[in-house]
Write a structure and sequence with these properties.
2 domains, six-stranded parallel β-sheet, 34% helix
């Protein structure tokens, strides 16, 4: 089978660190074109990461008829702009999370791509890892009973004022960068949407971004999710699910290395066990999963309605931080 030719918008550090190497093993995706606003930077990046073409603008890449789909790891505030440009060029789009700055942008992106007949998917890679597939299986089969509450902790320490995550105008801050994971994983394990949320944030006096946040998502009927996240604390992450018949905990839920087994701790009345899933690269699985859907003309693995629903919860959290009250989650 001939591989799909990938075009990447931006000489992304994220792509370089986490995607470039695993894609060398892909049977479905071939790195083909890289674009930067600096031609020399694009050329250097292309030579390092095996791209055949290097362009000095994003528009030039999108005009290349040989590009089969695009990966969009640009800053959050220009996701919508380049989703539209890619859709105008007829290119299927794998866009880094979050899909936009708010649910309105996510809806606009989804509707625009639907009108153009172009597939669009938000790049939540963690859902492709075997440990998450196994965790969801355990919940569905009822091994820990009915899930009543989930919890998440997700922190890292980044005080670089030049880093895009610390630039408010570019959509930086903890909620958009990692809060989206806490919300997404809660919705995934609950297999439901929260009805209302309450959250409290701390804002950096210099960056003007949220750097520490805690929240409760109310799923109704006594079911909830609670999380804390920060961009200025010691790096740590964990996801738990508490059910009427037991619990499970995912040790490295989001930034799972590709060279070690996934690990889920399960506690039930039978006892405690640690499930180790096979080693896997979640980014390779994500790109191959998206590429397969493009090749077969089937729905993308994670439908865009999921991205909209996730963004609606983030909007409600921002509203709650401003009002100091519980806020309803808008349904789209």
């Amino acid at each position: 089978m001939e591989k799909l030719r990938l075009g990447v918008l931006g000489t992304s550090g994220h792509y370089e660190l986490r995607v470039a190497t695993p894609l060398r093993s892909s049977l479905l995706v071939e790195p083909y074109a890289i674009a930067s606003r600096n031609q020399e930077k694009a050329k250097t990046y292309a030579e390092k990461w095996d791209f055949s073409k290097a362009y000095g603008s994003y528009e030039e890449l999108l005009a290349d008829s040989k590009v089969d789909f695009v990966y969009l790891p640009l800053p959050n505030h220009i996701h919508l702009q380049y989703i539209k440009k890619a859709a105008d060029a007829g290119k299927p789009i794998l866009c880094e999370k979050p899909l936009g700055l708010n649910a309105k942008e996510a809806v606009e992106a989804a509707e625009y791509c639907k009108k153009k007949g172009v597939p669009l998917m938000e790049a939540f890679m963690y859902r492709f890892h075997p440990q998450w597939r196994r965790a969801v299986e355990l919940v569905k089969c009822g091994e820990i009973g009915k899930v009543i509450s989930t919890g998440a902790l997700f922190c890292y320490d980044n005080k670089d004022n030049n880093n895009i995550r610390n630039i408010a105008e570019a959509g930086g801050g903890a909620i958009l960068d990692i809060g989206c994971y806490a919300v997404s994983s809660a919705r995934h394990l609950m297999a439901a949407e929260p009805e209302r949320v309450v959250g409290t944030f701390v804002w950096d006096p210099v960056f003007k971004t949220d750097i520490l946040g805690s929240a409760i998502l109310d799923f109704g009927n006594g079911r909830n999710s609670i999380f804390t996240l920060s961009t200025q604390l010691y790096p740590y992450q964990r996801v738990t699910a508490l059910g009427t018949g037991g619990s499970l905990s995912i040790q490295i839920p989001f930034n799972m290395p590709a060279d070690i087994p996934g690990e889920i701790t399960v506690l039930t009345g039978v006892g405690k066990r640690i499930i180790k899933t096979e080693t896997a690269d979640q980014y390779l699985l994500e790109f191959d999963g998206f590429a397969e859907s493009v090749i077969n003309k089937t729905g993308v693995p994670t439908p865009v309605c999921d991205a909209i629903a996730n963004m609606a919860v983030l909007d409600a959290l921002f509203a709650s931080a401003k009002s100091g009250k519980w806020e309803p989650v808008t349904k789209y």
